[in-house]
Amino acid sequence: MLEEVLRRWAEASPKPLVLLIDEIDALIGDTLISVLRQIRAGYPQRPALFPQSIVLCGVCDVRDYRIHSDRDKAIITQDFFRQHSEHWIERFDYKEARPQLLLQVFLQRIVNSGGGGRIEREYGLGRLRTDLLLFWPYPGGVQQVVIELKLVYGSLSSTIEKGLEQTAEYADRCGADEAHLVIFDRDKSKTWQEKIFSREETYQGRQIKIWGM
């Protein structure tokens, strides 16, 4: 259906199309695979019967995903994209980043709901962390909030200790008004009561709110 819509649109347009698809990484599994396959199928027919260029906007580069296909019971790896892509970045494991992506999509929905705010992302490929900088306007200025996202590897205390250092460093570099450290614990042996918590700590003179998830 998507391929057909884009074909008809390009056919009716007097000029070549440039299509931007925002938050493409909100799609997962077979839905994302279907979109990518339809784009690939229409690509050779550009620009007369397909957009001349398509930009997939999101937290990460979809070419770096390992996408699980429930329908085909397979993993769509980099080879799927390598045949139809001009540039490559580092290898990225979507499974590792899933909790971070979900939170970022949730925050993006809040920002999009109104108020004129925005989120800037600094993704640490291979570092099991993501930095978010939230801009939220208010009468008289703009509030800047740093949100550092980390996955628990090893002990919770060591993850928090390292996360506090990274959060403070990023907050100081950005001149943020607030700083938050979000910790994702995927240990299935732990209860929700153990995983979910909130507390505040002072690190190098900066107050940082810690959230356990």
Model description:
This protein is an alpha/beta fold and 213 residues long. It folds into 2 domains: 2-82, no CATH class; 94-212, no CATH class. It has 6 helices and 10 strands, in the order αβαβββααβββαβαββ. It has a 6-stranded mixed sheet, with helices on both faces. The longest helix is centred in the middle third of the chain and has 19 residues, at 94-112. The two termini are 38 Å apart. The mean pLDDT is 79.
Summarize the structure.
The chain is an alpha/beta fold and about 210 residues long. It is built from 6 helices and 10 strands, in the order H-E-H-E-E-E-H-H-E-E-E-H-E-H-E-E. A hairpin with a 2-residue loop joins strand 9 and strand 10 (about 205-210).
Rg from alpha-carbon coordinates? 20 Å
**Class from secondary-structure proportions:** alpha/beta
Specify the oligomeric state: single chain
Order of helices and strands: HEHEEEHHEEEHEHEE
Characterize the main sheet. 6 strands, mixed
